[in-house]
Amino acid sequence: MTATTQGARCNDLGQPIGPAVPDWTARPVPTGVTLEGRLCRLEQLDPVVHGDSLWRAYADDSQGRLWTYLGSGPFDSRAEFDGWLTAHAGSPDLVSYALIGRSSGEALGVGSFLRIDPTMGTLEIGHLCFAPALARSTLSTEAHYLLMRHAFDGLGYRRYEWKCDSLNGPSKRAAERLGFCFEGIHRQARVYKGRNRDTAWFSILDSEWPALRQALEAWLAADNFDADGRQRSRLAIAVAD
Question: Average model confidence (pLDDT) for the chain?
């Protein structure tokens, strides 16, 4: 191995190569361990335990807007909904969580680790379906923080991905607000619900996580909110710093 050429590492043939990753080993596979926060708790999804409260929470979405950019739903019956939950909870390719609000004890949303590659240290957070009660809430931000912290600090993954339909504005804005880096559009990536999907890709790298973790923890701190729960400083400003 030679030194460097114009700042890039090169091999003995003078070809630029990527930075060394010394002593890398495969990461553990997520197991669905419970993640505890100040405002919420993430438990491995169990249709029997969480089905009733999720059904009630999603009922607030009378227009079915939650399901527009998901592969399934909305559901005409509880039986169909339970089938969807059971498929998620039982899939060998997913580690699915229910988001439990501490004050209510109710399940208010679900999300999954997927495309888990322990050899490369990459995984994706997806299949996110948060009830209307979680829209732009501190609970949802804390849930994402807990999942990120588990992936990077708990399991040692190198790359944390977020993907969504490129037309899903709220999902793209949520990714950017949480500190994800936009990587581009994969055109005609999928066909779902009888229509095309161009997929927007976002990611966070392990090298970016420490600064992002600090910003998220500062924003989520109890003293960042007044007696009425209003934030004193915005997360976007903290992340930008």
Answer: 93
